[in-house]
């Protein structure tokens, strides 16, 4: 397929073995094979993983494996849904941050897997501080793409073009909110077309507006 990175999630099987040394050895073997094909492997800690749920443990395993083709993937949902200390991101070298996935979400008291699969939102539309999360990732030295991973039942049924416009707006707003307060402001975007029109009418003008 020509994809440069393979994302591998932490195990969710009930009978998964709780052995970081074994996980490191297996990931190193995978990275060795991937490197032979010009592919990197990004290891991601799922919030509902059987044993590996936090980014610090995922990074410990990757560091123990010690292979140049093996790094970590950070997903804001898995980090923020567990209220993980964002300071843990600073321990990961920038060159080992292979991929970043972004999603916001409302605060919900429910099974984390169902929360993740059905109620994710674009950055800025939920209850989490995405600028703070992204700021820590960028400060750690991440230079890759900002990828949106948003599972949402409403978006699945919506016009994909509208969802794409909404998604792009969220990234532009996130970039502006994450930009440092000092220095040059971000460039002014090129504006064209209309997103929506809002009309206020009173009892006198209402009929004319409705006819229009």
List the helices and strands and how they pair.
Layout: E1 5-9, H1 20-35, E2 40-44, H2 55-65, E3 70-75, H3 76-80, E4 97-102, H4 112-118, H5 130-139, E5 147-148, H6 153-157, H7 160-178, H8 206-211
How would you sum up this structure, described in words?
The longest helix has 19 residues, at 160-178. This protein has helices at residues 20-35, 55-65, 76-80, 112-118, 130-139, 153-157, 160-178, 206-211; strands at residues 5-9, 40-44, 70-75, 97-102, 147-148. Strand 1, helix 1 (20-35) and strand 2 (40-44) form a beta-alpha-beta unit. The protein is built from 8 helices and 5 strands, in the order E-H-E-H-E-H-E-H-H-E-H-H-H. The radius of gyration is 21 Å and the shape is elongated. A 5-stranded parallel sheet has the order 1-2-3-4-5. Helix 1 (20-35) crosses helix 2 (55-65) and helix 5 crosses helix 7. By secondary structure, the protein is an alpha/beta fold. Helices cover 37% and strands 11% of the residues.
